[in-house]
Write a structure and sequence with these properties.
The complex is a heterodimer of chains A (455) and B (191). Chain A has helices at residues 4-12, 15-37, 42-58, 60-73, 84-97, 109-114, 116-122, 132-139, 156-167, 176-193, 219-225, 246-257, 287-290, 307-311, 313-318, 329-339, 356-360, 367-380, 386-400, 402-418, 421-424, 445-452, and strands at 77-81, 102-105, 126-129, 196-199, 203-205, 210-215, 229-235, 239-240, 265-269, 277-283. Chain A is α/β, with parallel strands linked by helices and 455 residues long. Chain A has a six-stranded parallel sheet with strand order 1-10-7-4-2-3, with helices on both faces. In chain A, strands 8-5-6-9 form a four-stranded mixed sheet, with helices on both faces. The longest helix of chain A has 23 residues, at 15-37. With 191 residues, chain B is α/β, with parallel strands linked by helices. Chain B has five helices and eleven strands; from the N terminus they run ααβαββββαββαββββ. Chain B has helices at 3-13, 33-43, 56-63, 124-127, 144-152, and strands at residues 47-49, 70-72, 97-101, 104-106, 111-115, 130-136, 140-141, 158-162, 167-168, 176-177, 184-190. Chain B has a five-stranded parallel sheet with strand order 1-11-6-3-2. In chain B, strands 7-4-5-8 form a four-stranded mixed sheet. The longest helix of chain B is centred in the first third of the chain and has 11 residues, at 3-13. Classes of the chains: A alpha/beta (455), B alpha/beta (191).
């Protein structure tokens, strides 16, 4: 399986496109900053959000039971799934009971993780993703490259070509408004004929047994209000204790994500509609075991805003597909190794440890510290590439012995000063592939100190 | 399997208990609620009428000159359609303009709250081509921290904060107003 360095190399081969991607994603960070500056209590909100999540996670069993009891009292059916296969089976059973063949789904990264679409399609159901970005990648048979803006890696010309082929829009008309209108018509038909709607969950509230979903497009609501059956899929860590806590989280989610003060629609689903069915499916998939890991449990506070993704210089220049998981970027790099350390041992190294992610995280996850801890664990378990291991061992030996360090520093300075460019910049010098080597200083600090300070 | 296994795992792994914090209101004195409400709604492409303003019927006809099928839940504005013909969700697809009474407004985010306690069908504010809401200025509060406690006891089956016309920027981050929900959003504040 290809890992981040190799996948990123492919992405970077198109330098112009990389620069475009970098700028595009960075604009989310800039919009976020503009809004955060207008909220004087922002840092207090971050602390409160982290504390609310920690309290909930430390009482998770009690709050889940409270949530289930309240939901059931409201006429909602609650299901528990340990693994993705269980979730898929549960969702299919609900649909099969009522002979459902046409399903619409609003954005749910959880169901992507579970491969729900493929599972249902194999069983002969039609499942249409209704978020525009998700619909685009569904039509292209790709996964999301960014969990808030799934098609952000695509250019309008590519979307135009896709719509021309599959929706018969005008060739070479790549006006985003024209294309969005075409998608609106196409998806309106799907909404009107759907027999079931599936959504993800941004926040579930234990006190009211309710779920909250945020969108800008209105697709979650159309998908839930038109067909008789609505199914909400959520990770168990999406729970918050009190209804009033929504005040904190709703303020922070859109601001962190896109720089909006709030999304266009903040929908609260409490009870099924008249003559309708409402289901909530709770998924574990490793979350309950992550809870027990002192070093990593804070990652369960995540509200999937993608602020860390948007700020990460590595993500911006390597793209979501380089992380070979639905959840990419810094948060993906600390969550995925818990699921499968072997498959994801590359991810914590896809970082410069700049710490920007931790700065912007609305729930104060210590992301860059967890990246560092994962690295230590991966090295201890011997799961890094042999070349890297050898390199780090040698570096460790040189850097920890004063005489060795001074000897090698002198040799390095001589080399940089005297050797021709072709000797310095070649395939042995990975660092020099995209960078100029530092200028050799005239003397080392030790030499300066001996000359100027020791009397 | 499933529930018991998950709960067992949680009980075994959950970290040491920490308390639930008290969240302040983050209130501010001297806030011009209506002005804040209007500017935050306008940020998300909403058309806002503050008092004093013309008669509601005049505003409706001037703002929506071509709307034929109008569904109104307000007594002051008559629906132009026979509301008895609207039973199932799909029926609402031909509504050009929906006019709905909002229960609550939030100035800080620029949002209004509608719930199924005041809707003939939950889908009405989504299938209509254009959406207009009317809200009394006394029902506008400052922040979400003020709003949520007021909503908790109402116990609707469904409620939503709406802040603008539907939109998307999924294609190259180019903002397009009018995604799957209404193409426009208008808020009329009455005193």
């Amino acid at each position: 399986m290809k890992k981040h360095p190799e996948l990123a190399k492919t992405f970077l081969a198109d330098e112009a496109r990389t620069n475009w991607h970098n700028k595009n994603i960075k604009s989310f960070r800039l919009k976020r900053d503009l809004t955060v500056k207008t909220i004087p209590e922002w840092e207090k909100l971050r602390t409160l959000a982290a504390q609310i999540k920690d309290h909930c996670l430390s009482h998770l069993d009690d709050y889940l039971l409270e949530f289930e009891a309240k939901a059931i009292a409201n006429g909602v059916q609650v299901h528990w799934a340990s693994e993705p296969a269980d979730l898929n089976h549960i969702v299919h059973s609900i649909l099969e009971k009522k002979d459902v063949t046409r399903v619409v789904k609003s954005k749910s990264m959880l169901t992507e993780e579970c491969g729900l679409n493929e599972y249902l399609e194999e069983k002969g159901l039609e499942i249409i993703d209704t978020d525009l970005g998700e619909r685009i990648i569904q039509m292209r048979k790709e996964g999301p490259s960014h969990f808030v803006a799934p098609a952000i890696h695509l250019k309008r010309e590519e979307v135009s070509e896709l719509f021309h082929e599959q929706l018969h829009t005008e060739k070479d008309n790549f006006d985003p408004t024209y294309l969005t209108r075409a998608a609106r018509s196409h998806l309106r038909e799907k909404f009107l004929h759907a027999e079931a709607g599936i959504t993800g969950v941004n926040f579930a509230v234990a006190e009211t047994g309710s779920v909250t979903v945020v969108t800008n497009e209105g697709n979650s609501d159309l998908g839930c209000h038109i067909p008789p059956i609505q199914i909400h899929c959520m990770g168990i860590e999406k729970l918050i204790p009190k209804w009033d806590n929504l005040g904190v989280f709703i303020r922070m989610l859109a601001a962190s994500s896109t720089g909006q003060r709030i999304t266009i629609y903040t929908s609260h689903y409490l009870k099924p509609k008249v003559n309708g069915e409402m289901h909530i499916v709770l998924l574990d998939n490793g979350r309950s075991s992550q809870l027990g890991k002192k070093d990593y449990k804070n990652s369960l506070r995540c509200i999937r805003c993608a602020a860390c993704v948007n700020t990460c210089p590595v993500y911006r220049r390597s793209g979501g597909y380089s992380y070979h998981n639905t959840i990419s970027g810094p948060i993906g790099a600390i969550l995925m190794p818990n699921r499968d350390l072997d498959a994801n041992s590359d991810l914590p190294f896809a970082s410069s440890l700049c710490g920007s992610c931790s700065d912007v995280c609305p729930v104060k996850i210590d992301i860059h510290q967890q990246l560092y801890k994962w690295r230590q664990e991966i090295v201890e378990k011997g799961k890094i590439a042999p070349m890297k291991k050898k390199g780090l061992e040698i570096a460790g030996k040189v850097l920890s012995r004063r005489n060795s360090f001074q000897r090698w520093s002198k040799r390095m300075k001589f080399f940089l000063k005297k050797m021709p460019r072709w000797m310095i910049y070649n395939s042995f010098n990975k660092w020099g592939e995209g960078r100029e080597m530092p200028e050799a200083p005239p003397y080392s600090f030790a030499q300066w100190y001996r000359k100027n300070r020791i009397k | 399997m499933g529930k018991e296994e998950i709960l067992e795992n949680i009980r075994r792994n959950k970290p040491e208990k920490t308390p639930l914090p008290v969240v302040p209101l983050f209130d501010q004195k001297e806030i011009d609620l209506l002005a804040t409400f209007k500017s935050n709604l306008e940020l998300q492409n909403t058309k806002v009428f503050l008092p004093p303003h013309r008669d509601i019927l005049e505003i409706v006809h001037q703002t929506f000159p071509v709307a034929v099928n109008i569904y109104s839940t307000l007594p002051e504005v008559k629906s132009t359609v026979d509301t008895n013909n609207y039973q199932k969700a799909q029926d609402y697809d031909d509504i050009d303009l929906a006019i709905i009474k909002a229960e609550l407004g939030v100035a800080d985010t620029g949002s209004i709250w509608i719930s199924d306690l005041n809707l003939p069908h939950r889908v009405l504010p989504f299938l209509c081509t254009d959406l207009m809401v009317v809200i009394e200025s006394k029902d506008i509060v400052y922040k979400l921290h003020h709003a949520y406690p007021l909503l908790r006891h109402k116990q609707p089956g469904y409620g939503v904060f709406i802040s603008g016309p539907s939109k998307t920027a999924d294609i190259e981050q180019a903002m397009v107003i009018g995604a799957h929900g209404p193409m426009s959003f208008t808020v009329l504040v009455t005193s």
